[in-house]
Specification:
The complex is a heterodimer of chains A (about 625) and B (about 450). With about 625 residues, chain A is α/β, with parallel strands linked by helices. Chain A contains 24 helices and 16 strands. Chain A has three domains: about 325 residues, Rossmann fold (3-Layer(aba) Sandwich), CATH 3.40.50; about 50 residues, no CATH class; about 180 residues. Chain A has a seven-stranded mixed beta sheet, with helices on both faces. In chain A, strands 9-8-11-10-12-13 form a six-stranded mixed beta sheet, sandwiched between helices. In chain B, helix 11 packs across helix 12 and helix 12 packs parallel to helix 14. The chains are: A alpha/beta (about 625), B alpha+beta (about 450).
Chain lengths: ~625, ~450
């Protein structure tokens, strides 16, 4: 197949730049343009896609996924044009989407590859001198340039350059998906869509349409394409749009006079309005400026008419003249109208259908706490700039993201205090220890922290949750503290949040004092704390280290805080879901990061636990 | 975006700075060209440039004006104080510049009115008329053309016909010998080498700096050097990324006589703030045909058709919006036009053409949002001024866009006729002209 295509490419006559077998490279990763070409291909029922590969000089080799009708296909992507050419010897067109800075060098690169016959330069703003060099080189090497500053062109039902023709609906409306009999060439790419529409409404449609681009020195000119159309037996009539400025249209005048163009030509040179301007106005195109009387639209229209072209009186009867010319050719039998083929429908893109409110689908995920899609990141209902303006602190951010509301200052400050007192508890506790051992095994930060984190649970750190739940449940059930303590003892259960290894009534834990003191002073209510303290009074009578420990104190105070700021049921739900344990997780993460960095800094080697610290008691 | 003219002073300063590099160090143009603008403090200049008080001076306006000699706008051989007085006098109010003269020096056209704001001051170069030559380099698709004539100055005449020419293919650089052979044969033999060497360097300078046009008339040939007296030049401004550093701090001044109205300046400012394009030229504020057309190419064709149908004198503005400006920008653009066209009532009524071709990918309904907002805001004034609106557009979502426009017409009770791609792009122009003929509603 590839061989047959290479043979086909080599056989194309000079007047055919693109046909139904033409394959191209897209230079630069222009996903939308490539997809539009493939949509055109599908609608035109091409046998092979018109895009053989994408050359992405700043990327790496790989594949890009595209739709071909309803199916998905892979198009290869190459970093180097050389490599792409070697792999796809049948490709003879490069559509160059390089910027105005690199359009020159990439086009030169393409010219150096013998199989590349035509380069389309899309960029606007390529320096004139560079374009002149490329044009001279193309002439020497017998290659073709379309552009720069163009959308490209189309051979109806065969090959479409990049974004030419607009949406697929417009392409079908303008009958670009199957061949007609009209060869059209203009400078402007923006107006080509309009002309395809005019031609499709007044004739059997476009055979080939080319926009050469609005520069003063385009790589190919109107006359070159008109002469190609003249040579192509499938094209029966010519339509063209010229423009004020430059003298290129006089080459057409010359060709008409010398009978090099004999097919009927309907042409209009735009810019007849320039005589209304007092000083010169630069229109959109670089070349659209008359520097002499000969370059005005009026002079050019007159010269063309005198040479035998069909020139309307204004753009307004351009369509009429095209229709008359077409009908004459039909009457003469030169053009035989063909039946319309059926049109395979390109499915609508999901995004476009959503935008047009034509489809809906249930979502798989819901999020109610943050949104990064708009102008600014939102935490709940607060923009990030407002987070800083109001200086809500880490406590405020936690309040927004965890409890979906901005709690009052006394609460957010309390949250921060909890984080501060839980940040670290020395290297010996299970979390920090695991983190250190993992770090010393040469693992990365995340692995080391996760290793420590995984020890957090019912015995380590989990007392925050447990204490809050147990104490508040007992309080809510209306149990007297003594009854609660007795019940727990009867069941053989420890009371969560009570008891400390070292600290005791006589040697109080400063952390507990700080938390307790703050709650007593600032909270609206401390019922759960008070209950826990009543329980502590009973337990410390049994042993003086059975005090309310820091985990327990944080837990019960937090329960008090939540209950004063939201309905009791909601507050209890947060505790059940693990919001309090989360405080310990966030706080302790700071400590574990510290231990990880510390061990790395000290270049500590792999830890191996000493044998003599393990009692080996295997069955003898 | 194209070839743009630069000030004479900037062109000469570039030559003074760089020509020697391209001419093997042999030709030195002294850097004594001073550009005077409205902000230049004329009192302070002599302390910076001592020669201003020591030499006889030449002063000329520096605003892309052709035929300054025939317009009597060259001051020659005066002192600095006389020069300052002359500059103040010439820039004190609007003057008229003519483009064509008969043999006796009588103007043959209506001329262009404008105000002089920029001048160039340089030392006078004493020379004989026979020392003057003409040299120009022009650009064409195949390369460049060097024109040389052994005489020069104000009365050089039709150089296109008289000058010797050398077409230089792109990428080639003619040697001094080649130039001497092809261009200098009418010059006294003793001067040929000197001038040929200068032109050799000048062409390299022209090519490497991405000039698109360079004319020196006259260049003065002295015993051992060549001095550019009058210079006009254009640069290819797309080459800014290649040659911008060598150009230095230059500007591309507007043509003489084009001063922006408040509204034009406002739109130019808007244009500079968006990646999209917004353009406005007011041609005749009393005109009855106003346009608001999407797309550079389409806007020209609408203006053409108005002209071709014989309503050039009624055409109030030229403008375009393209490149998908957002709602805020189209709103501001539309408001500016509506404001201009409703300032003064014409009993015969006015028309507004909201035109455009078939858009490629721009959502038509979206771009109409800003225009609809402006029309709604101006509805009272639109009714009071008997304004009839014609809409024509195609492209993505155009049906929705046209529906919005149709409904707006009913809502604000302003006649809005709406057409899509089934109607020829400019058909609304003859319809609007017909309405104008009938006069007020």
């Amino acid at each position: 197949m590839a061989k047959a295509q290479v043979a086909k490419a080599a056989k194309r006559p000079d007047y055919v730049l693109f046909d139904r077998d033409t394959q191209s490279f897209i230079y630069n990763l222009q996903v939308n343009a490539a997809q539009r070409m493939l949509d055109f291909d599908y609608t035109s029922k091409r046998e092979t896609p018109s895009v053989a590969a994408i050359v992405n000089p700043t990327g790496s080799d790989g594949y890009q996924k595209f739709f071909y009708g309803p199916k998905e296909v892979l198009v290869p992507v190459y970093k180097s044009l050389q490599n792409a050419s070697a792999r796809h010897p049948n490709v003879d067109v490069m559509i160059n989407f390089a910027s105005f800075r690199s359009a020159y060098s990439s086009t030169k690169e393409a010219f150096a590859i013998p199989q590349i016959r035509t380069v389309v330069i899309i960029a606007e703003g390529v320096p004139e001198r560079r374009m002149k060099e490329l044009t001279a080189e193309a002439r020497k090497l017998r290659k073709n340039i379309i552009g720069p500053a163009t959308v490209g062109g189309v051979v109806a039902g065969a090959f479409k350059i990049g974004n030419t023709g607009g949406t697929i609906e417009n392409i079908v409306d303008s009958k670009l998906h199957r061949p007609g009999s009209v060869g059209f060439v203009s400078k402007s790419g923006g107006l080509s869509n309009e002309t395809y529409n005019i031609v499709s409404r007044n004739t059997d449609g476009i055979y080939e349409g080319i926009a050469i681009g609005g520069d003063k020195y385009p790589g190919s000119t109107l006359i070159e394409h008109l002469l190609r159309f003249q040579a192509n037996p499938d094209i029966k009539m010519l339509v063209s749009l010229g423009e004020v400025g430059g003298i290129d249209e006089y080459d057409i005048v010359d060709a008409l006079r010398k009978k090099k163009i004999t097919k009927p030509l309907v042409i209009w040179v735009t810019g007849t309005c320039t005589k209304a301007f007092k000083t010169e106005v630069q229109f959109g195109h670089a070349g659209a400026k008359a520097d002499a009387d000969r370059e005005t639209a009026d002079a050019k229209n007159k010269a063309l008419k005198d040479a035998g072209a069909i020139v309307p009186n204004s753009f307004d009867d351009y369509g009429l003249r095209i229709r008359e010319t077409y009908e004459k050719l039909v009457r003469k039998g030169t053009i035989k109208p063909r039946p319309e083929p059926d049109v395979p429908k390109v499915p609508m893109d999901y995004a476009a259908a959503v935008k047009a409110k034509m489809i809906r689908k249930p979502t798989n995920f819901i999020c109610t706490i943050s949104d990064d899609r708009g102008e600014e990141l939102m935490y709940r209902n607060m923009a990030i700039s407002e987070v800083f303006k109001q200086d809500i602190g880490v406590g405020g951010v936690i309040s927004l993201l965890w409890f979906k509301r901005l709690l009052p200052k006394y609460c957010t400050k309390f949250i921060e205090m909890c984080l501060m007192v839980t940040a670290d508890h020395g290297p010996a506790v299970s979390g920090a220890h695991n983190c250190i051992v993992t770090t010393r095994a040469g693992k990365d930060l995340i692995s080391s922290i996760v290793s420590g984190m995984l020890t957090i649970g019912p015995r380590f750190g989990g007392a925050v949750d447990g204490a809050a739940q147990m104490m508040s449940a007992a309080l809510d059930a209306g149990k007297a503290p003594a009854q609660f303590v007795k019940e727990m003892k009867d069941k053989g259960l420890n009371i969560q949040g009570i008891g400390h290894l070292i600290k005791s009534v006589h040697n109080p834990d400063m952390r507990v004092e700080i938390i307790k003191g703050y709650a007593k002073k600032n909270f609206k209510s401390t019922k759960v704390l008070d209950y826990a303290l009543a329980v502590e009074r009973l337990t410390t009578q049994k042993r003086d280290n059975l005090i309310l420990n820091v985990d327990g104190c944080i837990g019960v105070c937090f329960a008090d805080m939540l209950r004063s700021e939201m309905p009791k049921e909601e507050a209890d739900e947060y505790i059940r879901m693990g919001a309090l344990n989360a405080l310990f997780v966030v706080g302790r993460t700071m400590g574990m990061v510290g231990h990880h960095l510390d061990q790395k800094r000290l270049k500590q080697p792999l830890y191996r636990h000493p044998w003599d610290d393990i009692a080996y008691m295997l069955d003898q | 975006m194209a070839q743009k003219a630069i000030r004479e002073a900037h062109g000469k300063q570039m030559m003074a700075r760089l020509l020697k590099e391209y001419a093997g160090g042999k030709y030195v143009v002294e850097d004594n060209f001073i550009s005077v603008g409205p902000k230049t403090d004329l009192r302070k200049l002599p302390s910076k440039y001592k020669w201003l008080r020591e030499k006889k001076l030449v002063v000329k306006p520096d605003q892309l004006i052709k035929r300054r000699g025939k317009n009597k706008l060259i001051l020659v051989g005066k002192t600095y104080d006389e020069a300052v007085k002359w500059i103040k006098e010439k820039s004190s109010g609007p003057i008229t510049i003519y483009g064509k003269f008969d043999a006796k020096g009588k103007p043959l056209d209506k001329g262009t009115e404008g105000t002089l704001t920029h001048f160039i001051i340089e030392p006078m170069v004493p020379h004989k008329e026979t020392d003057e030559c003409y040299v120009a380099i022009t650009s064409n698709r195949d390369g460049d053309k060097i024109l040389f004539y052994h005489k020069g100055g104000v009365n050089v005449g039709d150089v296109d016909a008289k000058a010797l020419k050398l077409q230089v293919p792109v990428g080639k650089f003619p040697t001094a010998e080649e130039l001497e052979k092809s261009l200098m044969r009418n010059l006294p033999a003793t001067r040929r080498k000197l001038v040929a060497g200068f032109v050799e360097g000048l062409y390299k300078f022209y090519a490497d700096l991405n000039f698109a046009y360079l004319e020196i008339n006259p260049i003065v040939v002295l015993k051992d050097r060549v001095v550019p007296l009058d210079l006009a030049a254009k640069l290819d401004d797309t080459a800014e990324f290649e040659s911008g550093k060598k150009w230095g701090d230059i500007e591309f001044p507007p043509p003489f006589g084009r001063t922006l109205s408040k509204e034009e300046a406002y739109i130019e400012d808007l244009d500079s703030k968006t990646g999209a394009s917004l353009k406005l030229t007011v041609l005749n504020p009393k005109g009855r045909v106003w346009t608001m057309v999407a797309g550079g190419g389409a806007s020209v064709i609408y203006a053409d058709t108005i002209t071709d149908l014989g309503y050039m004198s009624e055409m109030a503005n030229y403008g375009e919006y393209s490149g998908d400006p957002n709602e805020e920008f189209t709103y501001k653009y539309a408001k500016t036009i509506l404001d201009l066209m409703t300032r003064e009532k014409d009993p015969r009524g006015k028309v507004l053409i909201i035109g455009g071709g078939i858009a490629n990918f721009t959502d038509v309904a979206n771009t109409f949002k800003g225009i609809v907002r402006a029309l709604r805001e101006y509805q009272d004034k639109l009714r009071r001024n008997d304004i009839k609106i014609y809409v024509r557009r195609g492209g993505p979502n155009y049906k929705e866009g046209l529906r919005i426009m149709r409904e707006l017409g009913t809502e604000i009770k302003v006649p809005i006729d709406v057409y899509g791609p089934e109607t020829h792009m400019t058909k609304v122009v003859p319809m609007a002209m017909e309405a104008l003929k009938k006069g007020g509603r």
